[in-house]
Amino acid sequence: MRRISLSFLPILVLAAGIVVGARAATASTTLSLVAYSTPKDAYGKIIPAFQATTAGKNVSFNQSYGASGDQARAVAAGLSADIVALSLEPDVSTLVKKGIVPSNWNQNPYHGIVTDSVVVFVVRDGNPKKIHTWADLAKSGVQVITPNPFTSGGARWNVMAAYGAQRAQGKTDSQAIAYLKRLFKNVSVLPKSAREATQVFASGKGDVLLTYENEAIYANKKGVHTEYVLPKQTILIENPVALTKSGLKHSEAKAFLKFLWSSKAQKLFGDAGYRPVLKSVASSAKYRFKQPKSLFTINSKALGLRGWKSVQYRFFDHSNGIMVKVIGH
Question: Is residue 4 a part of any domain in this protein?
């Protein structure tokens, strides 16, 4: 368990939406960044760092933040985007199918993944409900907050962390699905995004928040009296970024994408609570995060996880996915 001591709640409540870069008045190029809800603070520091470079001089940004699935659908429907930074691969795949992002978007040494994280339990200060394990989340009287998996990428990571943790404990597929049903009986509200879920928890609702580790660290910085628990079994979260075909027309967008894997940007992601993917930064003592007993991935076949393409259809298909039956939709 890692302690989060805090004091000031109202700062936490930040509206998602569009922010125009401060240097727009003198910029000769404006790029549009469309991102999922939680990295807003990180990009708030990374963009000025890029603008301070030769490649970023006279470049401004339009920025839009929201639930990852909603953001992908908005871009597919016409929202302008040169760079998309989303929670998980299926949301980028949505844009590949629409012809907006090229199919080779992940052909770099990092496979298009710009940050890592893990799913954790955020609990009230002092952990009054003594929540330490996945089994504790399904106990009677425990109120769980998690976003809606049909809008939020973070919610889909939460679901697969819960399912995979059961399989890692030796449970069968049917037993793991039965656990999801018990868990979601304790979920009283399904906010649209991970950031909205944090805001709901910060307002005093719920006993435990299922979320990204980086979001737990964000709450620490913004004044919510909580702690977070790293469960023994959890999933490695991998967050993708890509240029759209529109972005590929701008050398500045290409330079910004490259900058995201620079030591400077990766340190800024690390400062915001993300696990850097650049080995030289990740190996620094400052960014060395605790490791769970069992850290699995979305491709852990031994746990019944066969990659996002399979998982997305089986669990999150809007017509007959497992989660439709678990929570209704």
Answer: no
Q: Is 101 left (phi over 0), alpha (psi -120 to 50) or beta?
A: beta
- The count of structural domains within the chain is 2
C-alpha 207/C-alpha 189 separation (Å) is 12
List the Cα angle 54/63/200 in 5-degree steps: 135
Q: Give this prediction's pTM.
A: 0.90
C-alpha separations of 266 from 46, 174, 270, 275, 295 in Å:
9, 40, 6, 9, 22
Residues 192 and 316 in one domain: yes
- 68 and 185 belong to one structural domain: no
Q: What is the pLDDT of residues 42-84, one digit of tens each?
A: 999 999 999 999 999 999 999 999 999 999 999 999 999 999 9
Q: In terms of domains, do 180 and 306 share one? A: yes
